[in-house]
Amino acid sequence: MSGWYSTAGPELPLVSQTGDAACDCLVIGGGWMGLHAARRYAELNPDASVVLVDAERIGNNASGRCMGFVIDLAHNPRKQDFVEDIKGNKEELYVNLDGIAYIRSAVEEHGVDCDWDPQGKYHSAATAHGVEDLRRFSEALDKLGQSYSWVETAEIQAITGSKHYIKALHHPGTILVQPAKYLKNAARRLPKNVTVHENTPIVAVRFGTPKHVCETPTGTIRTSKVIICASGYLTKFGFFENRAIPLYTFASMTRQLTEIELSQVGNKQAYGLIPANSFGTTVRRTVDNRLFLRNVYSYATDFKTTERDVMKARVQQQIAFDRRWPELSSIGFEASWGGLLTLAQNGGMVFGELDRNVYGAAFCNGTGVARGAAFGKAVAELAAGRSSPVIDILKTRASPSKPYPKTVTAIGVRMVTAYRFKQAGAEV
Ligand SMILES: Cc1cc2nc3c(=O)[nH]c(=O)nc-3n(C[C@H](O)[C@H](O)[C@H](O)COP(=O)(O)OP(=O)(O)OC[C@H]3O[C@@H](n4cnc5c(N)ncnc54)[C@H](O)[C@@H]3O)c2cc1C
Prior knowledge:
The chain has helices at about 5, 30-45, 60-65, 85-110, 130-145, 155-160, 180-190, 260, 305-325, 370-385, 390-395, 405-425; strands at about 20-30, 50-55, 70, 120-125, 150, 165-170, 175, 195, 205, 210-215, 220-230, 245-255, 270-275, 280-285, 290-300, 335-345, 350-355, 360.
């Protein structure tokens, strides 16, 4: 269980699906994509019955295990065309802003508690090559007409209480949230025509008309429409088979710090730091006074990771912690966990009608909070026969391409991630 999940308040009342049931629209997967797809479809069709199923607990999935940056503009300064691809970046921004607005409406209109904090994010550098990455990122922001500000050494060290950082770039627009809290509470606030079943994997499907028949371990759901938001598991439903590149990334969270400890981790009550190098360490200081670090990517055979991998990554998180706050090293971590990221070789994502009355949104390609909400909302609108500028943009996006054979991809990913991790040096 993730530290976010266990500190996110009471669990949802667990109701697994049993027996034979029918609905107008079944949404599979309760992450950022599926939750917002269910909400949107139900809002647009108040007389329709919508069922949202998740194989596990909502909030304890990758969506609830993430760092909680609701990112307006995902950055990748090392990507060759990041600076040049102005049209792509503008569209990305447009889509993500739609996702953020939808999440914000859940908070402001439906009272979803999630420690919402619109303070933006600090892209932080600890090395000269990190500063160079930030400079390239700032060029891209200039071209996009985005505002940002430089944070010099004394200020970033005062914010974090860490001598590790030498420079940062503050970019407004990103929201910080407690992701598991959002997902649990948003599931509670779904429209009345949505029924939620957790611990309910769809284990087999017969697509057809007038109804698709979806089997769960203890029952059947017949549905006119199905929206699959099951991340890489979408491929198990017969679409984009073998096109997912499954990666895990890992995180560790401390216990709540004491007053004395807090005085050593900076003068800002909560913050989020994105590493200048994408293989560096992401850091959050949480609203409830914990430090939380993410690093390490590993190839996940058949979408799974192991306890051993989590513990190996925890060692790297402790090293990263010690670099930043050596005097607090003995605190250790209260919880460590991993979460699934689904990538495609060409950066493509799944969006659209996959078969008759079968819709899908999946493959987050690394950052899927704002984007996931936008994809989920848009795919529900598509399923409801609507059109929108976001749908138009997403329809033009590349679908996931076929990667190299699995063993080649696995070896390639392992080698590249190990090399990039080493190259990131003290940014980790
Ligand atoms: C440690 C970590 C930190 C991250 N930090 C950030 C961040 O700060 N910002 C950001 O934008 N992104 C971040 N990400 C990425 C982000 O978490 C993902 O992009 C996002 O959660 C993907 O959402 P999703 O809804 O597509 O998938 P998921 O959250 O994986 O949801 C898919 C759901 O489908 C369910 N499912 C699968 N198969 C079935 C089935 N057969 N039947 C029923 N249910 C099924 C699964 O149980 C799961 O709950 C991070 C990821 C990790 C792991």
